[in-house]
Every structure is written in C-alpha cells, then in structure tokens.
C-alpha cells in the first residue's frame, strides 16, 4: 500500500474513498493493441500512487476510461494522456523523451480531427491535457486555451 509515502490528509475524503488501483481489463480491443510502453503508462495513470499525487486528473482519467475504454479508444485523447503521464512516471529514465513523442502524436491526431471538423468531447479533453503540460502564459499555452474554448463552442 502506497499511502505511507504521502500525506493523505491533504486529499479530499471522497477522492481517497475511490482511489484504488485499476488493473488490466479482461477484454478491450484498444488495450490489446497497445505497445508495452503505452500499457505501462496507462497502468501508472490508473494506479493509486498516481492518484495520490494527481487526484483530480486521476479522477478524469478514470472517467475517460469508463467512457472510452481502459485503453482510451480515441487517439488524440489517448496520446495526450500518455504525454501527460510520461512526464511524471517514477521510472522516468525508461520514459525519457516519450512525453514529447506522445505530445507530437496527440497534436497530429487532434489536428486531423480539427481539419475534418469531427471533434467531440474527447478532443476537448485531449486539448485540456496538452494545455496542462505547456509553460503557463506562453504563446503555446494561450493557443491551446483558445483551441479549447473554440472546440467547446463548436460542440456545445
């Protein structure tokens, strides 16, 4: 149990009540097609240790997994989540540079959806996770914020 490593009194009680490790699904076509690195990162994102450090985004990841499958079937969202996770995974020496690679894949996949005007809520969340990993108040983060607002207006 990882709770000994963290000050659990800093987290809302409702978050601690639902934070449990989520294990590999028995059957999920997207999960089954993932590379080993992708699966390891997603398992980390569904783990208790990640949830204790990033409880809000952990809850969002779990909600996305309930809607889009454990392997996150929507490509832009999956890559943006993987980019987010690759930056914080404790075994970072094995994941060096992966956040940038996943970020590029997420941006490319999101760009295709935007070009086709086939965006849905998954793409809005993909942009949100990309924004979280940009330098605050930079031109890139402002562009992503504006993109999130534009997508929200489009799908609303």
Structure notes:
67% of the residues lie in helices and 0% in strands. It has 156 residues and is mostly helical. It has a domain at 12-117. Helix 6 (75-86) packs parallel to helix 9 (121-132) and helix 8 runs antiparallel to helix 9. The radius of gyration is 16 Å and the shape is globular. It starts with 12 loop residues before the first helix and ends with a helix. Mean pLDDT is 77; it is low at 1-12.
Q: Keyphrases for this structure?
A:
mainly alpha; 156 residues; disordered N terminus; 67% helix
Overall average residue pLDDT = 77
Structural class: mainly alpha
Low-confidence stretches: 1-12
Number of strands: 0
Radius of gyration from the CA trace? 16 Å
Question: How much helical structure, as a percent, in the residues?
Answer: 55-70%
Termini separation: 42 Å
- Using the alpha-carbon principal axes, give the shape: globular
Strand content: under 5%
Number of helices: 10
Describe the main β-sheet briefly: none
- SSE topology string: HHHHHHHHHH
What's the helix and strand layout?
Layout lengths: L12 H6 L10 H4 L3 H10 L2 H6 L1 H14 L6 H12 L5 H4 L2 H19 L4 H12 L6 H17 L1
Helix pairs in contact: 3-6, 6-8, 6-9, 8-9, 9-10
Concise overview:
This protein has 156 residues and is an all-alpha fold. It has ten helices and no strands. The chain has a domain at 12-117.
